[in-house]
Write a structure and sequence with these properties.
about 75% helix; 5 helices; mainly alpha
Length: about 80
Protein backbone atom coordinates (compact mmCIF):
# COMPACT_ATOMS: atom_id res chain seq x y z
CA UNK A 1 0.00 0.00 0.00
CA UNK A 2 1.33 3.41 -0.97
CA UNK A 3 1.68 6.35 1.47
CA UNK A 4 0.28 4.54 4.50
CA UNK A 5 1.98 7.07 6.78
CA UNK A 6 -0.73 9.56 5.76
CA UNK A 7 -3.65 7.40 6.94
CA UNK A 8 -3.83 8.75 10.49
CA UNK A 9 -3.90 12.39 9.35
CA UNK A 10 -6.55 11.65 6.72
CA UNK A 11 -8.76 9.75 9.19
CA UNK A 12 -8.31 12.56 11.73
CA UNK A 13 -9.46 15.11 9.16
CA UNK A 14 -12.54 13.05 8.32
CA UNK A 15 -13.29 12.57 12.02
CA UNK A 16 -13.07 16.30 12.75
CA UNK A 17 -15.23 17.32 9.81
CA UNK A 18 -17.82 14.66 10.63
CA UNK A 19 -17.98 15.66 14.31
CA UNK A 20 -18.39 19.35 13.59
CA UNK A 21 -21.02 19.08 10.91
CA UNK A 22 -24.63 19.73 11.75
CA UNK A 23 -25.51 16.26 10.52
CA UNK A 24 -22.98 13.93 12.09
CA UNK A 25 -23.10 10.54 10.44
CA UNK A 26 -23.16 7.93 13.22
CA UNK A 27 -22.00 5.18 10.84
CA UNK A 28 -18.92 7.19 9.86
CA UNK A 29 -18.25 7.87 13.55
CA UNK A 30 -18.41 4.17 14.39
CA UNK A 31 -16.12 3.20 11.51
CA UNK A 32 -13.58 5.87 12.46
CA UNK A 33 -13.69 4.87 16.12
CA UNK A 34 -13.03 1.27 15.07
CA UNK A 35 -10.17 2.32 12.78
CA UNK A 36 -8.44 4.38 15.47
CA UNK A 37 -8.74 1.57 18.01
CA UNK A 38 -7.65 -1.22 15.66
CA UNK A 39 -5.05 0.52 13.48
CA UNK A 40 -3.46 2.85 16.01
CA UNK A 41 -4.45 1.25 19.35
CA UNK A 42 -5.88 4.59 20.46
CA UNK A 43 -9.28 6.13 20.91
CA UNK A 44 -10.89 9.28 19.67
CA UNK A 45 -11.56 11.02 23.01
CA UNK A 46 -8.92 13.75 22.56
CA UNK A 47 -10.01 14.35 18.98
CA UNK A 48 -13.58 14.70 20.16
CA UNK A 49 -12.55 17.30 22.75
CA UNK A 50 -10.86 19.34 20.02
CA UNK A 51 -14.14 19.45 18.08
CA UNK A 52 -16.53 20.43 20.86
CA UNK A 53 -18.36 23.66 20.13
CA UNK A 54 -16.87 24.09 16.68
CA UNK A 55 -18.63 24.27 13.35
CA UNK A 56 -17.20 22.92 10.14
CA UNK A 57 -16.12 26.42 9.07
CA UNK A 58 -14.24 26.82 12.36
CA UNK A 59 -12.23 23.63 12.11
CA UNK A 60 -11.42 23.51 8.38
CA UNK A 61 -8.36 25.83 8.73
CA UNK A 62 -6.96 23.53 11.45
CA UNK A 63 -7.70 20.43 9.39
CA UNK A 64 -6.06 21.91 6.29
CA UNK A 65 -2.96 22.92 8.28
CA UNK A 66 -2.65 19.37 9.64
CA UNK A 67 -3.08 17.86 6.17
CA UNK A 68 -0.48 20.26 4.79
CA UNK A 69 2.02 19.29 7.50
CA UNK A 70 1.44 15.52 7.50
CA UNK A 71 0.38 14.64 3.95
CA UNK A 72 0.90 15.63 0.35
CA UNK A 73 -2.72 16.82 0.08
CA UNK A 74 -1.84 20.28 -1.24
CA UNK A 75 0.67 18.89 -3.71
CA UNK A 76 -1.85 16.34 -5.00
CA UNK A 77 -4.57 18.89 -5.61
CA UNK A 78 -2.07 21.36 -7.06
CA UNK A 79 -1.15 18.76 -9.65
CA UNK A 80 -4.82 17.95 -10.26
CA UNK A 81 -5.66 21.61 -10.84
CA UNK A 82 -2.73 22.00 -13.26
CA UNK A 83 -4.15 19.34 -15.59
Amino acid sequence: MKNTKEIKAILTAIFAINKTSEREDKDISRILDYAFRRLFESNTNLLLLACIGKKKEDIIPEVMEMLKAETQYDKYFGEQNAQ
